[in-house]
Design a protein that fits this description.
two-stranded antiparallel sheet; mainly alpha; single chain; 76% helix; 5 helices; 158 residues
């Protein structure tokens, strides 16, 4: 059942991103996706396999759901959320968007633990929230750096 749930969530996120009126170019969205992908996979590998803060299921179908969640769903949600933040008109809207997105990401993590994709050993939801805040902050800072370091010759494809 977990594979169906996470496949459906990932499918919905990808198609929502496809239909979204994006604020940034394809290259910037790809940069964000790949950045979140690399950072999230490395963190989950270090925290789960090396530090044993949580354990990942060994059942093949559930592990496939975990891989979909880790490699497709979370980076896609980050791209969607950062496009929402960029298109927000005021600081209060941006803060509400960030708060809502963190809640959405926590719900995804909660579903992961409910379907036993993950089992917390020395980890909890508070650490998940702290990790997601740090990851979002780091991605926003690196994207801002990317925008200043890479000159824009043309408008690009939206």
């Amino acid at each position: 059942m977990s594979l169906v749930v996470f496949f459906t969530l990932a499918w919905l996120a990808v198609f929502y991103l496809y239909g979204l009126n994006k604020h940034w170019t394809v290259i910037e969205n790809t940069f964000i996706f790949l950045l979140v992908l690399v950072l999230h996979i490395n963190f989950t590998w270090i925290a789960g396999e090396e530090l044993k803060w949580f354990t990942v299921t060994e059942h093949p179908m559930t592990y496939a759901a975990y891989l979909i969640q880790r490699t497709i769903l979370i980076p896609t949600v980050f791209v969607i959320v950062l496009n929402w933040i960029a298109s927000a008109s005021s600081w209060s809207r941006k803060l509400w968007t960030i708060a809502g997105s963190l809640l959405l990401l926590l719900v995804i993590q909660w579903i992961s633990t409910a379907y036993e994709l993950l089992r917390y050993e020395q980890w909890n939801t508070g650490y998940d929230l702290l990790y997601l805040v740090l990851l979002m902050s780091l991605v926003m800072i690196l994207h801002r750096g990317y925008q200043t370091w890479i000159p824009k010759e043309t408008e690009g494809i939206k």
